[in-house]
C-alpha cells in the first residue's frame, strides 16, 4: 500500500502521543470512520470536545490522512497483518494499532455481510464520465507564439463523454510523445481493469 508523504506525515502525527492523547486517538479514529459513512463529512470531527486541545490545522491534516488511510485499507481489503505492518512503519504503538484495527472491524469488517453499510465506502468519490466517442485531427505547428520555428506535429483530441444522461465534449492537444504516453497509460489501465475483473 503506497501512501503519499503528506498522508504519512499526518499519520505519524496521529501516532505521536504528544499530538493526540490516547482517549483523543480513540475518539478521532471512530469519528473518522463514522464521517466516511455520513453525508455531513468531517464537520463533526473537528468540533469534538476530546480534540479541542489539538491544533486545528494539525487536526485537519491528521483527519485527512486517517481518512485516506482508511479508504486505502478498504480498497485493498487489507488484513490485520498488512494494517499492522503499515502502521508500525509509521511509528504507531501496539495499543494504537489495536485500537485502529478494532475500529476497522466494528465499522467495516463485521458489517460487510450484514448490511449495505460497507458499500457506501465503495461509492465514495466521483464517478468518471463514460466515453462515447473519440475524434482527432493532426496539425503541424511550424512556429510558436514567440515566432520560433517548431516544425512538429500536434494532435487535437476530442472525447465525447456522457455522465448521468448529459453529454459533454472534452478537448485537448498533445504532442506525439504525449499521445504515445497517453495510449500506454490507457493500455495499462485496461489491463488493470481486466485483472480486477478476474478476481
UniProtKB/TrEMBL annotation:
CDD domains for this protein: Commd3
Stretches assigned to the COMM domain: 130-197
InterPro entries named in the record: COMM (IPR017920), COMMD3 (IPR037355)
GO BP annotations listed: sodium ion transport
Pfam families (alphabetical): COMM_domain (PF07258), COMM_HN (PF21672)
Source organism, top-level taxon: Eukaryota
PANTHER family: COMM DOMAIN-CONTAINING PROTEIN 3
Family listed: Belongs to the COMM domain-containing protein 3 family.
Protein name according to UniProt: COMM domain-containing protein 3
Highest classification ranks of the organism: Eukaryota, Metazoa, Chordata, Craniata, Vertebrata
